[in-house]
Amino acid sequence: MVHTGACIAAIMGEGGSKKYGLTWKWLQVFKNDQDRRDLVTCGSAAGITAAFRAPVGGVLFALEEMASWWRSTLLWRAYFTTAVVAIILRALIDVCLRGKCGLFGKGGLIMYDVTSANISYHLRDVPPVLVLGVIGGILGSIYNFLLNKVLRLFNFINEKGIFYKIILACCISIFTSCLLFGLPWLASCRSCPSDTSEPCPTIGRSGNYKKFQCPPGHYNDLASLFFNTNDDAIKNLFSKDTDSEFHHLSMLIFFVTCFVLSIFSYGIVAPAGLFVPVIVTGAAYGRFVGMIIGSHSNLNQGLFAVLGSAALLGGSMRTTVSLCVIILELTNNLLLLPLIMLVLLISKTVADAFNGNIYDLIMKSKGFPYLETHAEPYMRQLTVCDVVTGPLQIFHGIEKVGNIVHVLKTTGHNGFPVVDEPPLSESPVLFGLILRAHLITLLKKKAFLRTPVPIGPDAFLQFSSNDFAKKGLGNGDKIEDIKLSNEEMEMFIDLHPFTNATPYTVVETMSLAKALILFREVGLRHLLVVPKVSGHIPVVGILTRHDFMPEHILNLNPSLTRGRWKRLRFRFPRLGRLIREL
Amino acid sequence: MVHTGACIAAIMGEGGSKKYGLTWKWLQVFKNDQDRRDLVTCGSAAGITAAFRAPVGGVLFALEEMASWWRSTLLWRAYFTTAVVAIILRALIDVCLRGKCGLFGKGGLIMYDVTSANISYHLRDVPPVLVLGVIGGILGSIYNFLLNKVLRLFNFINEKGIFYKIILACCISIFTSCLLFGLPWLASCRSCPSDTSEPCPTIGRSGNYKKFQCPPGHYNDLASLFFNTNDDAIKNLFSKDTDSEFHHLSMLIFFVTCFVLSIFSYGIVAPAGLFVPVIVTGAAYGRFVGMIIGSHSNLNQGLFAVLGSAALLGGSMRTTVSLCVIILELTNNLLLLPLIMLVLLISKTVADAFNGNIYDLIMKSKGFPYLETHAEPYMRQLTVCDVVTGPLQIFHGIEKVGNIVHVLKTTGHNGFPVVDEPPLSESPVLFGLILRAHLITLLKKKAFLRTPVPIGPDAFLQFSSNDFAKKGLGNGDKIEDIKLSNEEMEMFIDLHPFTNATPYTVVETMSLAKALILFREVGLRHLLVVPKVSGHIPVVGILTRHDFMPEHILNLNPSLTRGRWKRLRFRFPRLGRLIREL
């Protein structure tokens, strides 16, 4: 659902899909980076809201996990989205409860209701919860670790082509089904409780007491867990007064199976989520712990299951506030909040000691260039000069069309410094930064000059602001598509009007950490590096997101492995660093 | 509570109070701006947690309202704080419920519990809620407007001295008490309901049915509202099955009185909060609306009261997510969430059409230089040159002690550009930025040179990083305290090692909006403005927070009243702006 929401938002952000004729005029206003980012964030928030019926949790999750950086406007937009979703959702539930939409009608606003007016726990219940949190954190980090490894393997297989993809998916699914059908045979039959509201045993699709191979009047607890939808299984595990329903061995089996299966079923082509599987696994884990502790605690096993899911979620997702709220909105048990916060606190802390959160790992394994918000310590020891890589492509204020075409064809850069040289200025001066997309637009319009003379802002007359609007993914024009005659190649373009004359710049001696903060906080694409003493060269280089990537930096300075960066520590005395970093 | 928490945090941030000997060595680590900011934020979060027993709400409120800008680290820290507070709180409640702490023992984790398992509302209940939201928004903005005016008046009076302050406080309190005692006479006596758990009428301190002047068997509903603590009043208003307890006239009187009193009792020297009064007022307002609508809606008056508080809070505080969560944690009614979100959405939107949120207004009226996150439209039309004000004080790389002292004494600037001139460099070069505090430290240490020769980083040898640590408020040394002999005045200091050699700079032609984004996002104190063409002057000016203030800008360009900034719109063609703002 999260993914779906984000996708829809992304499509909207690109002004609808031309291919399918789904495009509107008013969507044009979204044709810029920021709005597109916000849209995607809001989309995922809406997705969570719809999936878990947790509007506030949706906002927070989107802000804590999705958004690269927070702005109050973004908060307001996300809130607006989720509020609308929540209200519509509530209205639909209202309609469905009147039985107007068949199977969909089930479930209210709260999915796994564990409300208990008189839940009581005391200080002596805290130690088990602490243990739960610690183990949950460790399990969560193991989960991330394994998922990461499996994903790399799957990516390797999937790259081999669509055929292998399908084979892989089939294998996993067959394996899964065999496991799910085979394992229940391990569990022994249990006699039905006398005081149960539901029919026992049940053979049908739903129901807590599955008959499976058992004689009448008995049920197979493991089967009852496996042969249910995830939601029913979670409801079942969270439920209060079923302490005797499951055998602790079958609970353990269920936990291990879920743990393994949820890892293996993620990376395949068939859509599989992260959230719900982790909740199920965590619930099983928590309930198992609850069974072991048994009567030594006031908390019943259902609450242990809730805390278990919290622990595992905290251990793998590593978000705090949003998880709190989501769990709160899922279970509607406010009295449990202090314990949930405690568990999340511990599990996150423990897990952070081992590896990063699951989304970062997935992004890394997929190779997205995601820029961390915080600067690595060794970055304080480097100057931007250390990471700038040449050769630097520079355009003159009035440039020959041929050169532009040649540079665009030979390099992949997206931004180029524009420099004025004599006779335009008495000394070389950095005029600004021009984007590849804009250059291509200029070439397409063929607004060329026969002689290298500057033209003023009336150069805009031939362009509409839409020409310079951000193109959708893949919709951008390629330089190869532009055909120019040799005569045109000899003509000139006055780049001045179309150049961003006030780009953000840093001096070459600035520490990398400081530059990263600027780059990250302001959300730049290009950062120009100017020399300390502006001599004959007005610009030293240009930094892009790629240049701030730890991998890139470590490649440039092999001596600088993360472990050994300390060797550099004394390149600047401590006080000097303190002052540099001001 | 919020204020208290923030204060404690601030004291910690300044490394304890030397005056009262409350200082620790480890608190030294907090002696920098960022940590101090974070501490205050966490402190206020803790305050809200303790006040409303709403840990998650506390985090969100702190982030949404207090924090100037968000970082995931800050979120984590705030979460940690509130989690700890929540757990301790829960433990104390646990202790108190065993009756070990006398009067404190009252109340559980949820303050105003309005849980209702089978609350049902349908589409036909939405219109009244919409009306509630709209009117609530209008009331909220009126509240802010009046509070602002009253505060200005009070500030004017309070400035006259302590005597006037006390007089003012006394007047308000006398006025309040008269009002509270006098008004109940307006209400007619009502006969006690037969089916009530509590004694009716009551004469004691607590209880819902106050006797006041009524004959036995009767109670005065207005008195029952007035002669209660705010908490009891809120509980009373939120309660479900008391639809017939109050007369709508006395509810109206109560609402108006609370509205007026809460405004007048805020600015006086006696401590008075904003949150609870607004909740009471809103509850009264909501309940009144509920009474008018009466049986036309499925929602009972208690829920209307909750929604009313939400509406008024949204209308005056203008926060969304945090309010949602706080109300959720106060009332523990998750099923009401969609309606609460809807109300907040509407009331905030309506109120934003009139004026800013209450905290901004208060900050303005107190004259704090708070920098808005978003740039005003007219800022796109101005360049940084338009707001830079001279005269600019520049230091040379190796400066005469006398000059430094003279400049520090004659100007109030906190940062000075350091420029190298021949013979140190062949042309004037901007070396960096040095802070007033650091200069004073240098002067105090008297590490002077007889001759103007540069010394290397070994200049640090005489300093510890503690000398350059951020001083507490008011603990900083004054330049006046430093006594120097005439001989010393003639000596030199090599500023190079102590200068921040890589300050953030912008070119003079950059649009003000763009510079503001840099200034705000990176959280700068000083921003150096360098010329486009670095000629004989390497630095044009220095921007501080003050220079970005709309008041300052409007003073500089009188033609540029907020209404008339549109006149400037075409200073740059639209496309040109689009490219400049990249």
Automatic annotation (TrEMBL), chains A, B:
Its main location: membrane. Pfam families: CBS, Voltage_CLC. It is found in: Membrane. It is a multi-pass membrane protein. SUPFAM superfamilies: CBS-domain pair, Clc chloride channel. GO terms for cellular component: chloride channel complex; plant-type vacuole membrane. Keywords: CBS domain, Chloride, Chloride channel, Ion channel, Ion transport, Membrane, Repeat, Transmembrane, Transmembrane helix, Transport, Voltage-gated channel. Residues 498-559 form the CBS domain. This is Chloride channel protein.
